[in-house]
Amino acid sequence: MELVFWFCLALVVYTYLGYPVVLFLLVKLKRLFNRQKLLFFEPSELPRVSLVVACYNEAEILEEKIANTLALSYPDDKLDICFVTDGSDDNSDEIIAKYANIKHFHSDERKGKNAAINRILPLLKTPYIIFCDANTFLNKEALVNLVRHYKDEKVGAVAGEKRVFSTNEDENAGAGEGAYWKYESQLKKWDSELYSVVGAAGELFSVKSDLMDPVPDGIIIEDFFLSVKIAMNGYKVRYEPEAYAMEAGSSSIAEERKRKVRISAGGLQAVGLFAGLLNFFKYGTLSFQYISHRFFRWTVAPLSLLILLLINIYLVVAGAGIVYTVLLASQVFFYFLAAMGNLYELKGKSSKVFLIPFYFVFMNVSVYQGFFRLLKGKQSAVWEKSARAKLKKT
C-alpha cells in the first residue's frame, strides 16, 4: 500500500509541477546546443489567408467583433474574412449583411461548429486558414504574427494565446480560469520551443489548408483533434503568444463547470482516439509531451488524487507512521480550502486564499463528470456556449 501511495503521489507531482520543471530544463539545454533561428515571412511575403469566425446567436457582440476583425493589421487583398452563422436565429445575418467585404455563410440547420466548418472548407481558396471564436477579440498584429511561422515548411499549424480577463461579475470563475491559462500558456511556449504544441485552443488557431481534413462527426474538441493529427503526421504545431485572443471569464462557476466538463469529456475521447501516441518509440518527443501534458492530466492525475486520499486514510488507521498522518492532515487542509472556496462562490464572494485549491479540485472533479457524461453518451459535440461576463477593453 505504501508503494502505491508514493507512486500515485509522484504521478500527481510530476503532472502539475515535475513536467513544467523538466520541460524548462530541456528547453534550456536545447538553447545551448541548437541556436537555429526560427524562419519567418517578411511583411511583403505574407500569403493569402482566410479568417473564419464561427457564430451561433452572437448578435449581441457581433458589431464589436466585426469592428475588431476589420481593424486587424493584414493586407486587405490577402485576407478573406468569413463569418459562419449556421443555426443562428437572431439577427446575426442582418448585421453581417451590412459589410460587403465579409463573406457570409449560413444554413438554417444547426449541426454544430464542426459541421459548419466542414461545410465551407471546399469554398475556402487560400493556402492558410485561421479560426477564431465570435466572443474573442484579437490584438491588431495577431494574423501577421500567426502566419509568419509558415515560412518554415515543417510547420503545419500555429496556435495563438488565450487571455482571460476577470471582472467583478465573474471574479471567481474568471480569476481561476485566468490563472489556469497563464500556467497553460507558459507550458505551451516551452512545448513549442522543445518540439511541438500538443493541442491548440480554438479561440485562435491556424492551419495549412492542405492539412485541414474535415473533422469527423462526434468529435467534441475539434481544435485539439486537428492540432494533434497534424503533429502526428510529422508537422510541428507552433505557439505564438504575440497573437492572442482576449475574452472575459465565464459569468459564474456554474457556466465554467459546463465548459470544463465538456472539455474533459473531449479530452477523454481524445485519449481513446490517440492511443497510438503512447508509443514513445514511434513518436519520440511528441509522445513524451502528449503523455506528460495531456494524458496524465486527463486520466492518471485525477485517479491518483482519489487513490492518494483513500490509501492515506488506510495507512493512518493502520498506524503506518507519523509521515502519513502529516500528509493526510495536509490533504484534508487542502480540500478544506477548496470547500471554503466553493462556499464563498455559492455566496457570491471570492478569496485569493481559496482560489488555487478550489480551481484545482474543480478541474479534477470536472474530469470525473466529463467521464460519466462521455460514458453515458450525454456529451454532445454541438457546442452549448457558456455565458461570459462582459469584456471591458481599454
TrEMBL record:
This is Glycosyltransferase family 2 protein. The chain crosses the membrane at residues 6-27, 263-283, 295-315, 322-344, 356-375. One of its GO terms (molecular function) is glycosyltransferase activity. Keywords: Glycosyltransferase, Membrane, Transferase, Transmembrane, Transmembrane helix. Belongs to the glycosyltransferase 2 family. The keyword Transmembrane helix applies. InterPro entries: Glyco_trans_2-like (IPR001173), Nucleotide-diphossugar_trans (IPR029044). Residues 50-184 form the Glycosyltransferase 2-like domain. It holds the Pfam family Glycos_transf_2.
